[in-house]
From TrEMBL:
GO terms for molecular function: ATP binding; glutathione binding; glutathione synthase activity; metal ion binding. Mg(2+) binds at E144, N146, E368. The keyword Transcription regulation does not apply. InterPro entries: Glutathione_synthase, Glutathione_synthase_a-hlx, Glutathione_synthase_C_euk, Glutathione_synthase_N_euk, GSH-S_sub-bd_sf, GSH_synth_subst-bd, PreATP-grasp_dom_sf. This is Glutathione synthetase. Pathway: Sulfur metabolism; glutathione biosynthesis; glutathione from L-cysteine and L-glutamate: step 2/2. The gene is Gss. CDD domains: eu-GS. It is an enzyme of class 6 (ligase). Keywords: ATP-binding, Glutathione biosynthesis, Ligase, Magnesium, Metal-binding, Nucleotide-binding. Catalyzes the production of glutathione from gamma-glutamylcysteine and glycine in an ATP-dependent manner. Glutathione (gamma-glutamylcysteinylglycine, GSH) is the most abundant intracellular thiol in living aerobic cells and is required for numerous processes including the protection of cells against oxidative damage, amino acid transport, the detoxification of foreign compounds, the maintenance of protein sulfhydryl groups in a reduced state and acts as a cofactor for a number of enzymes. Participates in ophthalmate biosynthesis in hepatocytes. Its EC number is 6.3.2.3. Substrate binds at residues 125, 148-151, 214-216, 220, 267-270, 450, 461-462. NCBIfam families: glut_syn_euk (TIGR01986).
Amino acid sequence: MSALWEDVLRDPPAIREAAAVAVDAALLEGVLMRTEGEPNASDVVNYAPFTLLPSAVPSALFEQAYAVQQDFNLLVDAISQNREFLECTLASTIKVDDFTARLFRIHMQVLEEGLAQSVFLGINRSDYMFDCGVDGAPALKQIEINTIAASFGGLTSRTVAVHRQVLKVLGKSKEASRLLPNNPSHGLALGIAKAWELYSSPSAVVMFLVEEVQRNIFDQRCVENELWNRNIRVIRKQFRDVFEKGSLDDAKRLYVDGQEVAVVYYREGYVPKNYDQQNWEARLLLERSRAVKCPDIATQLAGTKKVQQELSRPGTLERLLPGRAEAVARIRATFAGLYSLDVGEEGDKIAATAIADPDRFVLKPQREGGGNNLYGEDLRQVLGKIRDSPERTSYILMDKIKPQPAMNYLLRAHSPLQVSQCISELGIFGVYVRQGKEMVMNKAAGHLLRTKAIEHADGGVAAGVAVLDTPYLV
Ligand code: ADP
Ligand code: MG
């Protein structure tokens, strides 16, 4: 695997020439981000970081990841409708994790009131690494599934063209033609458009709920533009706008600033720092409404790390997906070892094992967005401190996945051109729409490959660690 592009990697002048072409191609294709200094203005923009060369991905694992995506869509949807499962699974976590507890309280309140929403839209991204097991053959192992604000479906729709051109400049036209087309933004928009249509109010809008800091706006614009092309009106609002100008009518139709909202697409609301008291009130208002939330709060909870860990217990998948033995087998094949730190003997034992051998594990809190997990010595220290306290139940433990590194260049604005040892993470976008009990759409909508230098244990593109990439199937 690491031998891919070896000839090119030994040719620095060719690399420099290709890198210059690559950066301009990225700007031309719209692989863009706003700058850190001016995250809310488009006067100055730069290219989003990306690899110079596409990275090798084993084609069998790539196909496996696509083949299991509809199963994961069904699973997430089933969890979101299973009140008892969410209640039992999150019981220990919500005692110690305030953020999950607040989400859970809204979930319960909305259920007590009775759901006004009848159309459901899920957009998720299931992320994997290629683990080199003892026999050396790589295996597809899930890192996590993101059920809220899964990003980069837009920008990654535009990176293939960049890598095609780079390969051509490097004299590899044949290889360039082998890069697969990929357009998640189209697939995500299809789901949003379907939900909008089923909501059945032609004058209603799709509302992108966005963060205060909007560096990654172009990624969202790719999806927005797909909706405008279908003559669906899109508005961008923040929690603050909803708090100040949002209301429900007698039928719980949602109005924001005088406009009826058919679909709320969250690109915000996934971490504690997104919320103050007003934002929590806005979130509750949205959840109580009839509008299609992508995701609804139950689906957000279905994406917590605690749920992921409980899914790996024998029998759980079978209970959640009765009569779907093949789907269960496909899903289970992607699971790495996951362990509960709940109070009790099971938790005591695995905590002791992890403290003794921290490099085998990753310690994960109930957080999203990168940079929260603990590894190695940090893991040992933190877990050592809380091993006898209920606080440990706010974390889960996971086997550390160890992919085979490969050489590549990570292109970042204002950074020197230098070769790095890299590992990649493959994400598959899933989209589904359910009306009442009936699934009316269930698709894999494209992929995202992110690559980072091996010295970073954690972190995605938005966290400034990983960069966009394109798979080259081998
Ligand atoms: P987040 O919700 O913060 O994105 P993730 O579970 O995706 O949390 O972890 C963040 C990053 O940490 C991943 O993108 C990956 O690089 C690394 N990571 C997570 N779990 C593992 C694991 N089990 N083995 C190796 N690396 C991991
Ligand atoms: Mg992640």
